[in-house]
Amino acid sequence: MKLQNQTAIITGATSGMGAAIAKLFAREGARVVVNGRNPERGEKVASEIQEENGSAVFVPSDISAGEGNSLLVEETLKAFGGIDIVVANAGFLGLGRITEISAETWHKTMDTNLNSIYYLLRSAIPEMQKQPRGNIIVNGSIAAFKSFPNHAAYCASKGALVPLIKQIAMDYGPHIRANLICPGPIDTPLIRDSAKAFPDPDRAVADAADATLLKRLGTPEDVAGAALFLASDDSSFITGASITVDGGIMSK
């Protein structure tokens, strides 16, 4: 029960890594706010947590705009009275080279992967400062450090998170810790979508697994375990860090 009596907002929590983080946090005692745009999937995740005697509510909102984030914070306060942890997990994969990607896709990628962090934390941090301590975890990508074919907007949006998390840690420490998780190839629908940028998508996924030192794709639970570590007191002397969860790809 490493998160006993703490309230956690988790965006993009209706599937994949976000859902795994929500379920693990609930098992560790957190009151969880499941956020996403798909009501059916969101209610399912919240119900599964409740069936395990966990505490969870689903709050639908589009966090790519300011209003969605303000609503998310307001509904969290109504449900649980405070905010201790924010996990900014929602993401969007906009594919294309600079000369090919549409302005709409470029802006949607930036709004979801980068601007949403600003909107959410602008609303959430003042509430987190009312608690004994606060914890911010952003889910980034090894695309912050490594280029991929036809991933211009995605790599740019994830790369910006590295200095941003350092700035947040500086500006709001010591009361609030802030860290970035940078997953590598994780077995979620996102990696299948990302592989479409390659000539042979199935081969690209297989090659991604083989490129890891552990010779496998990561699981959503691998990322959830890292998020729990960063959210708990086990990492009490870690802030402003970017931690790769990539099976060793970036170690080569």
Short précis:
By secondary structure, this protein is of the alpha/beta class.
Q: What does this molecule look like?
A:
- With 252 residues, the chain is α/β, with parallel strands linked by helices.
- The protein has a single domain, classed as Rossmann fold, CATH 3.40.50.
- It is built from nine helices and seven strands.
- The protein has a seven-stranded parallel β-sheet, sandwiched between helices.
- The mean pLDDT is 97.
DSSP helix fraction:
40-55%
Strand count, sense and barrel status of the largest sheet are: 7 strands, parallel
Q: In what range is the share of β-strand residues?
A: 15-25%
- Average of per-residue pLDDT values: 97
Low-pLDDT windows of residues = none
Structural class: alpha/beta
**CATH fold label:** Rossmann fold
**Computed CA radius of gyration, to the nearest angstrom:** 17 Å
CATH architectural label: 3-Layer(aba) Sandwich
Strand line-up in the sheet with most strands: 3-2-1-4-5-6-7
CATH class: Alpha Beta
Number of strands: 7
Shape: globular
Number of helices: 9
SSE ordering: EHEHEHEHEHHEHHHE
Kindly give the count of domains: 1
Let me know the CATH homologous superfamily. Answer: NAD(P)-binding Rossmann-like Domain
Distance between the termini: 36 Å
